[in-house]
Every structure is written in structure tokens, then in C-alpha cells.
Amino acid sequence: MLQYIIKRILLVIPVVILISFIVFYIIQLPPGDYVSSYSAKMSAAGEVMTQAEMDEMRANLGLDRPVYEQYFVWMKKIILHGDFGFSFNFNKPVIDVVGQYIVLTLVVSLVTMLFQYAVAIPIGIYTAVKQYSAGDYFFSGLSFIGMATPNFLLAIILMYLSYNWFGDPLLGLFSSEYVNAPWSMAKVFDLMKHMIIPVIVIGLSSTADLVRIMRGQMLDELNKPSVVTARAKGLSEMSILFKYPTRAALNPIVSTLGWSLSSIFTGATITAIVLNLPIQGPVMYNALLGQDMYLAGSWLLFMALLTVIGTLISDILLAWLDPKIRTEFRGN
Amino acid sequence: MRTLPVFRRQKPEVFNTAKTKDANYSSQWRLIYLRFKKHKLARASLVILALLYAAAIFAQFIAPYGLQSYDSKYVNAPPMGLKLIDADGKFHFKPFVYGLKSERDPETMRKIFVADTDKRYPIQFFVKGEEYKFLGLIPTSLHLMGVEEPGRIFLLGTDGMGRDMFSRIVLGSQVSLSIPLVGVGISFIIGLFIGGISGYFGGWLDSAIQRLIEIIRSFPTLPLWMALSAAIPPRIPVVTMYLYIVIIFAFIGWTDLARVVRGKFIALKNEDYVIAAKIAGVSDAKIIIKHLLPGFISYLVVATTLAIPGMILAETAMSFLGLGIRSPATSWGVLLQEAQKIENVALYPWKLFPLGIVILTVLTYNFLGDGLRDAADPYKK
Amino acid sequence: MTTQAARTEQPLLSVQDLKIRIETDNGVMQAVDGVDFNIYKGKTLGLVGESGCGKSLTSRSIISINPKECETTGSAVYHSESEKALHNLDLLSLPPTGKRIRSIRGRKIAMIFQEPMTAFSPMYTIGNQIMEAILIHRTKDKKKAKKIALEMLAKVGISDQEKRFDQYPHEFSGGMRQRAMISMALSCNPELLIADEPTTALDVTIQAQVLELMRELQKELGMAILLVTHDLGIIAKMCDEVAVMYLGKIVEQAPVKEIFYNPKHPYTKGLLKSMPRLGGNKSKRLDSIEGAVPMPIGLPPMCGFYDRCKDRIEGVCNTKAVPKTHISDQHSVRCFLYEDQSEGESQ
């Protein structure tokens, strides 16, 4: 088992290196650089930068060097010093900007993930067991619509409804009085209240997806001969349900763990922009638009890494859950 | 002891009554067709999609107004109801709309529109309107419907610049409905090609391609889209912009299809009938065309159909954020930009109409894909 | 062969007029259509027929484990001498997911299946799955249950039980898995064992071993067996009595020797002719029955074998339902050819 894990981890390394390449290439793609977008901003404010000033600024920021050199400098700093570069927009190291948003980003993502599994698995089981019942049609219909609705627009509709019903659109993650307040029970409660809409919005489409996967898996598993065997042994329907089909149907769900993380980030990015959440989405968006290359690059790298790690974890979990792979490493 | 199975074990489908007998001996495509026909939801979806695409093709003809035509007198006007019975209870054979007059809401002092029952404009068909090129070729000014000047027809209301929502949705569908098709089409070709190479040659090439796919899939899709879209230079011609976006979508979308192709290729390569053909000396090219392709082309069609909804949603999202299609071109995502502000949704709920059409399209594609998937597997119960 | 005395004994299980209907896309399928048989203590009844004739559905309906799409009518009266609550109890009248039928499943009536690979779940160890039945019906004590399970594994000839107990189904060979399956079925000393094609998935030498094991255990435990198979060789080796099923009906039923030496129904005769025999004429091709089994959907009242029958009587066999004819006390057949030989009772 350990051997397998080590092998999988080693396979990740070249993938990560290539990802960093691609990330750097992508953030270089937009025409112009930070200096040109900065000077454009300046000139909009009435200050015109001369070519010499711009060149000097480029030289200061290291932007005058060839792309591959910039890449190696960036990578060297990351590996040797854990230094991800400097955010031009925020005027502080990227690592500080990341640190500022990472906690809430992870909180929102993980809560969303818990939400989608906690909702999708029971509904998936229910709709499979009661196939073609009114409840099945209801939830299946709902999950179809959930998959078809762009989540950012759902965000707007929910905001509107919450504004109508509670007089508060629940924008952001904190009410204004708590934004800069120190942590307290009231602040946590306020955060939880504000997280309802983002979590539903971000999680909805993957939840709908999961419901459909779970339902399909359960339907397959419910008709397996092993279920008939269990029934012939005299087990009650409930114990059969949880011991055999549910357990087997969870395997493919576990294998989606890695991708699920990726889809949460995707959903979170755009939802956060609409809902004005203080998480990475809007930061990333602005960094991309404003050519804040090291910040954008670090975020992209970071998210790709998380997805790779998520996939790694789900591969390992899957191997561990599958007796065939597990027993191979038992070493009889 | 000898215990040979003495009965011919056959699939029960083969013994069948005369009615379904022909189904057992028909070609693969006929089987798919027969099963698809049974799937009512998928059939209905196909009809709806056909209508939507027909509307997109003839968009300039169907839309009463052009993309940029606006009337500042009618900003944020509500949808007009098509009526047959007027305020006096009189029945009119031709459907008509009332004119709009603006008033102030006595409480909020906000400008609102109310129907002006004194001005009745019957709908006229095949009227002259703005000039356009029919199917991009024939210059004409004929429109499906319209009302007499100075009347206006806003079936789904107007936007913040006084542009007809209905016309813009119909015209926007040209972009919103074609981008996913072209995008998926390109992904299909790339996926078929790369997946085929990967599955057919195997070995190091396969591993390398698999790693590459793994890497592309490791990026959270949307940030990757955002990053790539941010790279599209501003102020470029509409056609170029369209191409850029299609290419970005295809670039990300092909990996799924390549995986499907590769998986099927490998599975089929080891099927007994393929090995039998190989032993019989059939050439590689013929094996691929005669034995492998028909085996998975139906799965590919299904995978492609199911990939479209994701592209529609992605295009909508990107355009909504201003990273996809940009003005002056329009798509449903662009139309939804006005719905970004909660006040707009609260005061002018008709700005969510494009959302309805997005949901309808995505749902019908999903149902169609589901129906095709069930149909593509004719022996599966 | 069963004697006259055995006939007057009360059967362990008496199935009467069993019918199973299944709704399908193409109409209502009459999968099982009026099946009667008795199973006696310590005896083996063979249920033989082609795939799709309804033999598996019949066997499974006894303990109500068919899918819920199957609409079952008729009765299956169980009579256990050892337990008062199980005197003359109609199993089909019990709710299929209720406590009472569950207390019979696995404890009084156990079942083994055709495919030992899929019948075990790949997720749990063999030991875990054997212990399950013991923990429900015999003891709540896990240690005791494990002891019983290990004993059972030893009884079915699995060596190194302690290690085998903790292994997963994929680590067992096919024959071993079927042995484990038998040990699981017998772990609660059932009075009736339903074996649904127990050896079909095994290769021939293993088949013989498993059948031998079943016979030994039957002698030791005194249980009755309902053996479902399509293989007449197995019937000859294992059974006391045989019921031949065709298209949802029992077309002929008789003691095993009667079936082999004095078959009546043209279908039974056809089956026997298509069976290879030791010492038979090797150059001669085996006979096969022409034609295919029709789908039992919307069939008119007539002999289901009519289309394939060499001895059919036009105007008789294809016009009405075939009654049961008693050739002798223990031999009955559903065929118009023997109607005049009837000893009275027909239905």
C-alpha cells in the first residue's frame, strides 16, 4: 500500500512542474504587462508616464528579462525561499495576499464540499430505492434544473429572495459591523448565516451531479446478486441497503473527490465575484485583468496543485477502499 | 461424470413475437433510433432544440428589431402582452398590443410604464423593417412581424438602453447556440484524433498523452477560462473574438472526449471479434473503420451531446463576467449582465428572460443526451 | 424412489398454483403459470428446464426474494415439525420484507446461487458474510458466531479456515467460493436448501466435488433440497423426484427413474435425446429440439410446446389449455397425447 502511495506521489512531481510551466505561460499571454496597464491607469488619472519611466519600472520589476528567465527566477524563489513573488496591485508579497484570503476560501470550499456530500448521498440513496416514486421525480427534476442553472444567476435570485424575505441580501461573508471585529461567537454565527447562500449556490450543480451519479450507482448495486444473497440470509432491507449497495456505490463518489474540489473552486470563483465574497475569486479575477502576474500565477498554481492533491487523495482512498488493491499489498 | 450443457442458451430477446422481430435483425443505427423513439422526454427535447436552432438561423427575420436599434423613450419597458380581447371586451381576430405610456409611481416616484388602452396596434406579419442580409446573403428588410409606427412591440420588455429583449435574445441565440456546437465540434475532432492515437499506439505515447490530459484537467476550469479569456486582446473584430472563444472552449473540452475515445478504443481492441479480424488478416485501417469506429461512435455522439450543456453554461458565465463575447456582439450571457445588479432583478424581473432560455436549452440538451445514451446501448435493459 | 408411505407423509413445502406475472414494456409476462409441487423432508426435488422457463423465479418466490416487479399468487405452505409457529404456514401470505419471512430465510430455508463471485459482495471478507446469517439467527455473540463459521468452513472442506475467514471473495477460486457459499447457507442448519444452478459456473471436476459435498451434507443434516438446474446429468445424480418446466408450467413430474426410463412428454423425450450418454453411439449427432421458446406474453390458451412438438395434434393442442394427466400415482404429465390414460383427476 505504502509502495503504491509513494509511486502515485512521485508521479505527481512532473505533473506539478509542467503545470507551473503552463501557468506561467498563460499569465504571460495577455498583451502588455503590468507596467503598461499601470501606466494606462495613471494616464486615466491624469499622470502620463514617459517611456523612460516605464522602462525603469520594468527593469525594477524584472519584467524586461526574457520569459524563461522570469520563470526560472520565480521558480527558484518559490523552491528556495517559499517566495511566490510580489503582488503589484496589493503592493505586498503574494504570500501575504494569499494568506489573507486563504482561510476563508478554504472554509467556504470545505463547507460547500461537506454540504454537497451530506445532501447528495442521502437523496441519491432515496431516489434509487424509491425509483419512479413522486419523491424520485421531484428530486430528479430538481437536480436536472440544478445542473441547468448557471450558479452565478442562482446567486442573484437567492440574494433577491433573501432581500425580499429578510430585508438583507446577505452580501459578502460578514455583516458590516463584524468585518473588522475580532473573532467571537456572534461573528462566527454571522459568518454561518452569510455562508448559506454561497454554499448553496456554489454547491448546487455539483450536488445535482452527485445525486445523479449516486442514484445511478445505487440502481446498479441494488440489482446485484449479492443483495439477493443478503436478502436470502434473512437480513432486513435497511441493513442490506447500508451494508451492500450504499457501501459499493460510495466508491465512485470517492473517486470524484479530486474533481469535486476543482469544480468547487470554479463555482466559487464566479459566485464570489457576484456575491462580493472576500475569498480568492474576485482577487484572482482582478489580478488577471490587472496583469498582476505573480499573484494570478500563484493562485492558478495553487489551485491546480490543490486539484492534483485532491485527485491523489481520492486515488489513494479508492485504493484503500477497494479490497482487491488493498489485499495486494497485504503481503501474505 | 459428464455434464455438458444440453440446452442452447440464448438471449430471451431473440425469441420474440412478430411485432418486435425486425428489431432483432436491424442495423445498429436503426436499433438506436427505435430505442430513442421510446424516450419521450428526449424526443420532445429534440423538437424544442430544432425550433431553437431554426429560430437562430432565421434570427434576423424573426426578430422585429436589429441588435443595436434602441429607443430611449422606452427604457426598461415591461413585456407587452399579446392580446385578442381589448379593454372594452371586444374580440379582435388579429392579435394586438397596446401602446405604452409612462407614469410616475405615486409612492416611489419611479418612472413606470402602463398600457395605453387608447392606442391599439394590431400585429402585422411580413412587414418591412430594418435592412439585414437574409442568411447572411440576400439583402432584405422583411421581418416576420411588427406593428405600425409609432407603435412598438416589446414581447419580452426592453433593457436599460431601450432595446427589445425578444429581438436580442433571438439574435443572441446565434452566438449562444453556435459557440457550443463549434466548440464541441472542434473538441470532438481533437479528442478523436488524440484519443485514437493514445488508444491505438499505447506505450509511452499513451502515457505522455495521459499525463498531458491529467495536467489540463488539473486546472480548475473557470480560472483557466478566465486566464485564457483575459489574454484575448480588447477591441478586436467580432469574428476573431468568436474564434478565440471557440478555440479556448475546445482547448479545454477535448480532454473528456479523448478519454472516452481512448477507453473505448482499448476496450474494443481486445474484443474477440476484433482479434478474429486481425487473425483473418484484415488490415489495420479496415479494422479501425469497419470494426472499431461503429463500436464507439454512438458513445462519442452521446459524450459530445452531454458536453454541450457545460459549454453553454461556460459561455454564459464568461460573457456574463465580460470575459467572453463582448459588445457589440451579443449572447445570452451578455444579456444577463444587466441582471448582475440585484436592483435590476427586483425592479425589472423580465431581465431574467435570457436565464429562462439558457435553462431551457441546457435542460433539453441534457435530456437529449440522456435519451441518446439509453438508446446507444440497445442490449442494456 | 419415493414409496407410497412417503406420499402420505406431510410435505415440508407444498407449492400450489404458483403464478408469477411481470409487467414489461411489451406487455404482461406470465413467467410462471400454475406450478404445483411438494418437497419432502430429506429428499431432493429437481426443477429442470431451459433458461427463461421460470424455474429460478419459482424457486426464489418461495422465500419472496424476487424483484418487486414480480406479482406472485398461489400458495407455498411450509410445515416444520420442529417449530410450532411454522406448522402449515403459507410463506406467500407473509409480507415480503417483514420479520416473519426474514426469520425463515437463512434459518429454515437457505439458498445458494449460481454465480458465487457475484453472490458474494466484493467489499467484505468471506468470514464477515458467513457470520451475518449466524448473527441474525443463531447467536448475538460475535466470538461464538465466528466459531460456528469456522466449523462450517471446515465442514465444506476449506482448509486453513482462520486465514480464509479473513480473505475477500476475489482471493477464493470459483469452487472454493461455492463451498463458502454452501457453508454460509448451511450455517443455521436449514430444513430446506434451495440450490439455484449451484454448479453451472464451475468447471466439470469442481462440479462433481461440490455436488458430492451437497449430498454428504444432506445426509448428515437431513435437509430437503430443491435443485434448480438445466443439466439432466446433475438431476440423475442428485434427485429423488423431477419436475420438468417449460414456459412457466411443469409439463411432467415423476420420480427420477420414471423420468429417465419412461418419459412421456415430447419435451422431456427431446431433452433426454439431446443429452450425451456414456457408451452411446459416438458417430451419431446429438438430437436437438427445433425452434425457440416463445415469449410468455399474451399467449393464447394452448400447449406452449406446440410449435416445436413432433407429435402435435392440430385442432387439439393449439385450441385449449392442457390439463394435468396422472399416468400413475407419482407420474403426471401435461400433454393431450395421454389424456385418455388419465386416472380420473384432471384440472
Automatic annotation (TrEMBL), chain A:
Q: How does it sit in the membrane?
A: Multi-pass membrane protein
Which residue positions does the secretion signal occupy?
none
Among its keywords, does the record have Ligase? Answer: no
Highest rank taxon of the organism = Bacteria
Q: Does the keyword Lipid biosynthesis apply?
A: no
Taxonomy of origin reads: Bacteria, Bacillati, Bacillota, Bacilli, Bacillales
Which cellular compartments is it found in?
A: Cell membrane
Question: Could you state one GO cellular component term attached to this entry?
Answer: plasma membrane
Q: Which family does it belong to?
A: Belongs to the binding-protein-dependent transport system permease family.
Please give the InterPro entries that the UniProt record associates with this protein. Answer: BPD_transp_1_N (IPR045621), MetI-like (IPR000515), MetI-like_sf (IPR035906)
Residue span, ABC transmembrane type-1 domain: 102-318
Its name, as the record gives it, is ABC transporter permease
Q: Name one GO biological process term.
A: transmembrane transport
Q: Which UniProt keywords apply?
A: Cell membrane, Membrane, Transmembrane, Transmembrane helix, Transport
Q: Return the Pfam families for the record.
A: BPD_transp_1, BPD_transp_1_N
Q: Which residues cross the membrane?
A: 9-27, 101-125, 137-163, 195-214, 257-279, 299-321
Q: What is its main location?
A: membrane
From TrEMBL, chain B:
Q: Residues in domain ABC transmembrane type-1?
A: 173-369
- Location of the protein in the cell: Cell membrane; Membrane
This protein's GO CC annotations: plasma membrane
Q: Which PROSITE patterns match?
A: ABC_TM1 (PS50928)
Sorted alphabetically, the keyword list is: Membrane, Transmembrane, Transmembrane helix, Transport
Grouped into one coarse class, the protein's main location is membrane
GO terms for biological process, alphabetical: transmembrane transport
Q: Which InterPro entries match?
A: MetI-like, MetI-like_sf, OppC_N
Q: Which residue ranges run through the membrane?
A: 41-63, 177-203, 242-261, 296-325, 345-368
The membrane-topology field of this record reads:
Multi-pass membrane protein
Return the PANTHER family for the record. Answer: OLIGOPEPTIDE ABC TRANSPORTER, PERMEASE PROTEIN (PTHR43839:SF3), OPPC IN A BINDING PROTEIN-DEPENDENT TRANSPORT SYSTEM (PTHR43839)
Family of this protein: Belongs to the binding-protein-dependent transport system permease family.
Protein name (Swiss-Prot/TrEMBL): ABC transporter permease
Q: Native species of this protein?
A: Paenibacillus roseus
From TrEMBL, chain C:
Q: Which PROSITE patterns match?
A: ABC_TRANSPORTER_1, ABC_TRANSPORTER_2
SUPFAM superfamilies assigned to the protein according to its UniProt record, in alphabetical order: P-loop containing nucleoside triphosphate hydrolases (SSF52540)
Q: Which GO terms describe its molecular function?
A: ATP binding; ATP hydrolysis activity
Q: Which protein family is it in?
A: Belongs to the ABC transporter superfamily.
Q: Which GO terms describe its biological process?
A: peptide transport
The answer, when asked if Translocase is one of the entry's keywords, is: yes
Mind telling me which Pfam families this protein's record contains? ABC_tran, oligo_HPY
Q: Which UniProt keywords apply?
A: ATP-binding, Cell inner membrane, Cell membrane, Membrane, Nucleotide-binding, Translocase, Transport
The topology of this chain with respect to the membrane is:
Peripheral membrane protein
- InterPro entries in the cross-refs: AAA+_ATPase (IPR003593), ABC_Ni/Peptide_Import (IPR050388), ABC_transporter-like_ATP-bd (IPR003439), ABC_transporter-like_CS (IPR017871), Oligopep_ABC_C (IPR013563), P-loop_NTPase (IPR027417)
This one is known as: ABC transporter ATP-binding protein
What GO CC terms are in its UniProt record?
Answer: plasma membrane
Q: Where in the cell is it found?
A: Cell membrane
* Plastid found in the keyword field: no
CDD domains from the UniProt entry: ABC_NikE_OppD_transporters (cd03257)
Q: Where is the ABC transporter domain?
A: 13-272
Give the organism the record lists. Answer: Paenibacillus roseus
